[in-house]
Specification:
By secondary structure, this protein is α+β, with helices and mostly antiparallel strands. Helix content is about 25%, strand content about 25%. The chain has 6 helices and 13 strands. Strands 1-10-7-12-5-3-2 form a 7-stranded antiparallel beta sheet. A 4-stranded antiparallel beta sheet has the order 6-11-8-9, with helices on one face. The chain has a two-stranded antiparallel ribbon with strand order 4-13. The protein is globular, with a radius of gyration of 18 Å. It starts with 17 loop residues before the first helix and ends with a helix.
Length: about 260
Protein backbone atom coordinates (compact mmCIF):
# COMPACT_ATOMS: atom_id res chain seq x y z
CA UNK A 1 0.00 0.00 0.00
CA UNK A 2 3.01 2.30 0.36
CA UNK A 3 3.11 2.48 -3.45
CA UNK A 4 -0.51 3.68 -3.52
CA UNK A 5 -1.02 5.94 -0.50
CA UNK A 6 1.30 8.63 0.86
CA UNK A 7 1.81 6.91 4.20
CA UNK A 8 4.71 9.19 5.07
CA UNK A 9 2.34 12.15 5.13
CA UNK A 10 -0.67 10.20 6.38
CA UNK A 11 0.64 7.45 8.73
CA UNK A 12 -2.37 5.14 8.67
CA UNK A 13 -0.02 2.17 9.00
CA UNK A 14 1.36 3.45 12.33
CA UNK A 15 -1.78 3.19 14.41
CA UNK A 16 -1.24 4.43 17.96
CA UNK A 17 1.90 6.42 17.16
CA UNK A 18 2.13 10.14 18.00
CA UNK A 19 1.94 10.94 14.26
CA UNK A 20 -1.20 8.85 13.88
CA UNK A 21 -2.85 10.52 16.87
CA UNK A 22 -2.00 13.98 15.51
CA UNK A 23 -3.67 13.09 12.20
CA UNK A 24 -6.75 11.74 13.96
CA UNK A 25 -7.00 14.81 16.20
CA UNK A 26 -6.61 17.23 13.27
CA UNK A 27 -9.27 15.34 11.29
CA UNK A 28 -11.69 15.37 14.23
CA UNK A 29 -11.13 19.10 14.73
CA UNK A 30 -11.90 19.77 11.06
CA UNK A 31 -15.04 17.64 11.28
CA UNK A 32 -16.22 19.61 14.30
CA UNK A 33 -15.50 22.97 12.67
CA UNK A 34 -16.48 22.33 9.05
CA UNK A 35 -18.44 19.08 8.95
CA UNK A 36 -15.66 17.50 6.86
CA UNK A 37 -11.97 16.87 6.53
CA UNK A 38 -9.78 16.50 3.46
CA UNK A 39 -6.53 14.59 3.02
CA UNK A 40 -4.98 16.23 -0.03
CA UNK A 41 -2.48 14.18 -2.04
CA UNK A 42 -3.67 11.07 -0.22
CA UNK A 43 -2.68 9.13 -3.34
CA UNK A 44 0.93 8.98 -4.44
CA UNK A 45 1.81 10.65 -7.78
CA UNK A 46 0.41 8.78 -10.77
CA UNK A 47 -1.93 6.55 -8.75
CA UNK A 48 -5.10 8.52 -9.52
CA UNK A 49 -4.33 8.30 -13.24
CA UNK A 50 -3.73 4.56 -12.93
CA UNK A 51 -7.01 4.08 -11.08
CA UNK A 52 -8.85 6.02 -13.78
CA UNK A 53 -7.25 3.88 -16.49
CA UNK A 54 -8.47 0.73 -14.71
CA UNK A 55 -12.03 2.01 -14.43
CA UNK A 56 -12.26 3.79 -17.78
CA UNK A 57 -13.19 0.79 -20.01
CA UNK A 58 -16.11 -0.14 -17.75
CA UNK A 59 -17.17 3.47 -17.27
CA UNK A 60 -17.29 4.03 -21.04
CA UNK A 61 -18.98 0.77 -21.99
CA UNK A 62 -20.99 -0.60 -19.07
CA UNK A 63 -21.68 2.09 -16.47
CA UNK A 64 -25.24 2.57 -15.27
CA UNK A 65 -26.71 5.92 -16.31
CA UNK A 66 -28.71 7.39 -13.48
CA UNK A 67 -30.93 10.29 -14.54
CA UNK A 68 -33.76 11.59 -12.43
CA UNK A 69 -35.69 14.65 -11.37
CA UNK A 70 -35.92 14.85 -7.59
CA UNK A 71 -36.28 17.17 -4.65
CA UNK A 72 -33.59 17.70 -2.03
CA UNK A 73 -35.09 14.91 0.10
CA UNK A 74 -35.32 12.26 -2.64
CA UNK A 75 -38.93 11.79 -1.52
CA UNK A 76 -42.12 12.22 -3.55
CA UNK A 77 -43.64 14.42 -0.85
CA UNK A 78 -43.25 15.76 2.69
CA UNK A 79 -46.50 15.44 4.68
CA UNK A 80 -46.25 18.85 6.34
CA UNK A 81 -45.47 20.72 3.11
CA UNK A 82 -47.74 21.75 0.25
CA UNK A 83 -46.71 20.16 -3.07
CA UNK A 84 -45.69 23.56 -4.44
CA UNK A 85 -43.60 24.59 -1.43
CA UNK A 86 -40.24 25.97 -2.66
CA UNK A 87 -38.35 23.50 -0.42
CA UNK A 88 -39.70 20.77 -2.74
CA UNK A 89 -38.34 22.40 -5.88
CA UNK A 90 -37.29 19.77 -8.44
CA UNK A 91 -33.68 19.48 -9.59
CA UNK A 92 -31.99 17.06 -12.01
CA UNK A 93 -29.18 14.61 -11.31
CA UNK A 94 -27.29 12.74 -14.03
CA UNK A 95 -24.39 10.41 -13.35
CA UNK A 96 -22.71 7.21 -14.51
CA UNK A 97 -22.03 4.48 -11.95
CA UNK A 98 -19.53 1.63 -11.94
CA UNK A 99 -20.15 -0.97 -9.24
CA UNK A 100 -17.64 -2.87 -7.14
CA UNK A 101 -18.25 -6.16 -8.94
CA UNK A 102 -17.19 -4.52 -12.22
CA UNK A 103 -13.74 -3.50 -10.94
CA UNK A 104 -12.49 -6.54 -9.01
CA UNK A 105 -8.79 -6.39 -8.07
CA UNK A 106 -8.68 -2.67 -8.85
CA UNK A 107 -6.70 0.04 -7.09
CA UNK A 108 -9.97 1.56 -5.89
CA UNK A 109 -11.06 -1.63 -4.13
CA UNK A 110 -7.64 -2.21 -2.57
CA UNK A 111 -7.85 1.25 -0.97
CA UNK A 112 -11.45 0.70 0.15
CA UNK A 113 -10.56 -2.58 1.88
CA UNK A 114 -7.31 -1.32 3.49
CA UNK A 115 -7.84 -2.10 7.17
CA UNK A 116 -5.70 0.75 8.54
CA UNK A 117 -7.91 3.18 6.59
CA UNK A 118 -11.06 1.64 8.05
CA UNK A 119 -9.66 1.87 11.59
CA UNK A 120 -8.51 5.45 11.03
CA UNK A 121 -11.98 6.49 9.83
CA UNK A 122 -13.55 4.84 12.88
CA UNK A 123 -11.21 6.82 15.14
CA UNK A 124 -12.04 10.13 13.47
CA UNK A 125 -15.74 9.39 13.96
CA UNK A 126 -15.36 8.15 17.55
CA UNK A 127 -16.75 4.78 16.50
CA UNK A 128 -15.62 1.56 18.21
CA UNK A 129 -15.46 -0.15 14.81
CA UNK A 130 -16.33 0.33 11.17
CA UNK A 131 -16.75 -2.44 8.60
CA UNK A 132 -16.63 -2.66 4.84
CA UNK A 133 -19.97 -3.36 3.21
CA UNK A 134 -20.62 -6.87 1.98
CA UNK A 135 -22.91 -5.90 -0.88
CA UNK A 136 -21.11 -6.89 -4.11
CA UNK A 137 -22.47 -3.89 -6.01
CA UNK A 138 -22.76 -1.10 -3.46
CA UNK A 139 -19.67 -1.49 -1.28
CA UNK A 140 -17.57 0.83 -3.44
CA UNK A 141 -18.73 2.73 -6.50
CA UNK A 142 -17.05 5.00 -9.00
CA UNK A 143 -19.25 7.85 -10.19
CA UNK A 144 -18.67 9.68 -13.46
CA UNK A 145 -20.04 13.12 -14.38
CA UNK A 146 -19.66 14.30 -17.97
CA UNK A 147 -20.28 17.66 -19.62
CA UNK A 148 -23.71 18.97 -18.65
CA UNK A 149 -24.11 16.48 -15.79
CA UNK A 150 -24.32 17.08 -12.05
CA UNK A 151 -25.22 15.57 -8.70
CA UNK A 152 -27.85 17.99 -7.50
CA UNK A 153 -28.89 19.23 -4.05
CA UNK A 154 -29.59 16.54 -1.47
CA UNK A 155 -29.07 15.36 2.08
CA UNK A 156 -27.32 12.04 2.70
CA UNK A 157 -29.09 9.13 4.36
CA UNK A 158 -25.93 7.99 6.15
CA UNK A 159 -24.14 9.85 8.93
CA UNK A 160 -20.98 10.34 6.89
CA UNK A 161 -19.67 9.79 3.37
CA UNK A 162 -16.13 8.90 2.30
CA UNK A 163 -15.01 9.79 -1.21
CA UNK A 164 -11.75 9.78 -3.17
CA UNK A 165 -11.51 12.07 -6.18
CA UNK A 166 -9.78 10.27 -9.04
CA UNK A 167 -10.15 12.87 -11.78
CA UNK A 168 -11.22 16.52 -11.71
CA UNK A 169 -12.99 18.05 -14.72
CA UNK A 170 -11.70 21.01 -16.69
CA UNK A 171 -14.45 23.30 -15.42
CA UNK A 172 -17.20 22.85 -12.83
CA UNK A 173 -17.77 19.71 -10.86
CA UNK A 174 -17.17 21.63 -7.63
CA UNK A 175 -18.49 20.52 -4.26
CA UNK A 176 -21.01 23.06 -2.95
CA UNK A 177 -22.44 22.68 0.53
CA UNK A 178 -24.37 24.43 3.26
CA UNK A 179 -23.29 23.25 6.72
CA UNK A 180 -26.02 22.32 9.23
CA UNK A 181 -28.87 23.64 7.12
CA UNK A 182 -31.23 21.55 9.21
CA UNK A 183 -31.05 19.59 12.46
CA UNK A 184 -32.66 16.43 13.75
CA UNK A 185 -35.21 18.60 15.58
CA UNK A 186 -35.66 21.43 13.04
CA UNK A 187 -36.15 20.71 9.30
CA UNK A 188 -35.77 24.45 8.49
CA UNK A 189 -37.90 24.27 5.36
CA UNK A 190 -37.68 28.02 4.78
CA UNK A 191 -33.89 27.81 4.90
CA UNK A 192 -33.93 24.92 2.44
CA UNK A 193 -36.10 26.98 0.08
CA UNK A 194 -33.69 29.91 0.39
CA UNK A 195 -30.75 27.68 -0.55
CA UNK A 196 -32.54 26.20 -3.57
CA UNK A 197 -33.37 29.71 -4.77
CA UNK A 198 -29.69 30.68 -4.59
CA UNK A 199 -30.18 33.14 -1.72
CA UNK A 200 -28.13 31.53 1.05
CA UNK A 201 -24.89 33.47 1.69
CA UNK A 202 -23.56 30.65 3.89
CA UNK A 203 -23.35 28.16 1.01
CA UNK A 204 -19.71 27.38 0.26
CA UNK A 205 -17.83 25.90 -2.69
CA UNK A 206 -14.92 23.49 -2.28
CA UNK A 207 -12.64 22.76 -5.23
CA UNK A 208 -11.08 19.36 -4.57
CA UNK A 209 -7.94 18.15 -6.32
CA UNK A 210 -7.57 14.65 -7.74
CA UNK A 211 -6.08 12.31 -5.16
CA UNK A 212 -7.92 13.92 -2.23
CA UNK A 213 -9.79 11.82 0.33
CA UNK A 214 -12.85 13.64 1.65
CA UNK A 215 -14.87 12.60 4.71
CA UNK A 216 -18.12 14.50 5.03
CA UNK A 217 -21.08 14.61 7.40
CA UNK A 218 -23.98 15.09 4.97
CA UNK A 219 -27.06 14.04 6.91
CA UNK A 220 -28.03 17.61 7.82
CA UNK A 221 -25.69 19.50 5.50
CA UNK A 222 -27.17 20.08 2.04
CA UNK A 223 -24.70 19.56 -0.78
CA UNK A 224 -24.31 19.07 -4.51
CA UNK A 225 -21.73 18.70 -7.28
CA UNK A 226 -22.02 21.60 -9.72
CA UNK A 227 -22.46 20.99 -13.44
CA UNK A 228 -19.39 19.67 -15.23
CA UNK A 229 -18.07 21.48 -18.30
CA UNK A 230 -15.42 20.44 -20.81
CA UNK A 231 -14.23 17.12 -22.20
CA UNK A 232 -12.74 15.63 -19.03
CA UNK A 233 -15.30 13.98 -16.79
CA UNK A 234 -15.31 14.15 -13.03
CA UNK A 235 -14.59 10.68 -11.64
CA UNK A 236 -14.91 9.92 -7.93
CA UNK A 237 -14.85 6.76 -5.82
CA UNK A 238 -17.49 6.47 -3.09
CA UNK A 239 -16.71 4.16 -0.15
CA UNK A 240 -19.47 2.73 2.07
CA UNK A 241 -18.66 1.70 5.65
CA UNK A 242 -21.00 0.68 8.45
CA UNK A 243 -20.90 0.20 12.21
CA UNK A 244 -22.00 -3.43 11.88
CA UNK A 245 -20.62 -6.15 9.66
CA UNK A 246 -22.40 -7.84 6.79
CA UNK A 247 -24.53 -4.94 5.51
CA UNK A 248 -26.26 -5.65 2.19
CA UNK A 249 -28.69 -3.72 0.00
CA UNK A 250 -32.03 -5.25 -0.86
CA UNK A 251 -32.67 -6.33 -4.43
CA UNK A 252 -35.05 -3.37 -4.79
CA UNK A 253 -32.35 -0.93 -3.64
CA UNK A 254 -29.83 -2.38 -6.09
CA UNK A 255 -32.27 -2.02 -8.97
CA UNK A 256 -33.06 1.54 -7.91
CA UNK A 257 -29.42 2.60 -7.70
CA UNK A 258 -27.79 0.41 -10.34
CA UNK A 259 -30.49 -0.88 -12.66
CA UNK A 260 -29.86 -4.52 -11.72
CA UNK A 261 -30.32 -6.79 -8.72
CA UNK A 262 -27.12 -8.81 -9.18
Amino acid sequence: MKDILDLARYPLDREGSPEWHRLVDASKAALAANGMFNLEAFLRPGVAERAVAEVRPVMDANSHVHKRMHNIYFKPSIPELAPDHPALRKVETISHTVCADQIANSTVLSIYEYEPLVRFLAATMDKPNLYVMQDPLARANVMGYRAGEALNWHFDRSEFTTTLLLQAPEIGGDFEYRTDLRSDSDPNYDGVAKLLEGRDPEAKILRIKAGTLNVFRGKNTAHRVTTVEGNRERMIAVFSYYERPGVMFSAEERVGFYGRAA
